[in-house]
Each structure stands twice: as structure tokens, then as C-alpha cells.
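Hi Q.,

Before the meeting this afternoon, I wanted you to have the tetrahydrodeoxyuridine prediction in hand. No need to reply - just skim if you have a minute. The sequence and ligand are here:
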Amino acid sequence: MDEYRDLLVNKALEARENAYCPYSGYSVGAAVMGENGTVYTGCNVENASYGMTVCAERVALFKMVSEGCRKFTAIAVATADDGTDGVPCLACRQVMSELRAAGEVPVYDCDPSGRVFRHTLDELAPLPFTLSDGGEDADE
Ligand code: THU
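Predicted structure with the ligand bound:
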């Protein structure tokens, strides 16, 4: 179940190096394991119009979908080495809920010191918003 932990943690830390965060100075990296076995990475991308900022997790997940994979099985998020557990924001948890694979989805929060906190998506997002049609694609 945790077979991809180290791989995802390392990829998230690597992606964090690319963070574009001139306003907050807070670098974040993310790496998701697609159901297809491919790893997709992302970093936070800020903007002078602050609200346009996109979190690292959503960059990684949207890259996954745009490249043809619609479900992920695990995610690692790399944040600052400040002793805190850098859990994903609630907007990202909603997006994760949309794109999650069935079963337990581990969320690893890590930092450059090597510390890793493990949660599950069910713990972090127990009651996500859904639509009654289950979100089936209109063209399928
Ligand atoms: N950030 C993320 O990339 N992911 C999160 O889950 C929380 C926050 C980014 C957004 C912004 O660039 C910086 O961290 C400070 O909020």
C-alpha cells in the first residue's frame, strides 16, 4: 500500500525546487501516482494577482488529467522544513476527492529534512461535495 511512498516523496521534493512563489516565499511540490503507473509532478505557481495562484497539488493533478489519466492512487506534498505537517489546502482536497482511485489513497506530507507525515484522503476529506449523477462524462 505504501510501495510508492519514497518515490513520490523524492519527486515532490524535486518538484518543489521549481516553485514559483515570489509573493509568499513558500515553496510547495507535489507528486501523484496515476492509476496508469505514471508519476505526475507540480509546484505552486503564484501571480501578482494573488487569487490566481494555483497550488502544487492541483498543478500535478491537472497535468495528470490533461495527459489522459483520470485517477490517482497516492500523492506526496513537499512543504517547508519548519516542523509543521504541510497538509493540502481544502480546495486541493476537493479536487483530490474528484480524481481519487477507489480504496485507500495515502497522502504523504514531507519536507527537505526527511520528515514524512502520512494521512489518508478519507481522513483529510471525509465529506467532499459531489453531484447526484456521480459526475459521469457526458460523452461516455
Ligand atoms: N500552497 C500549495 O501549493 N498547496 C497547498 O495545499 C497550500 C498552499 C501554496 C499556495 C501559495 O503559493 C503558497 O503555498 C502559500 O499559501
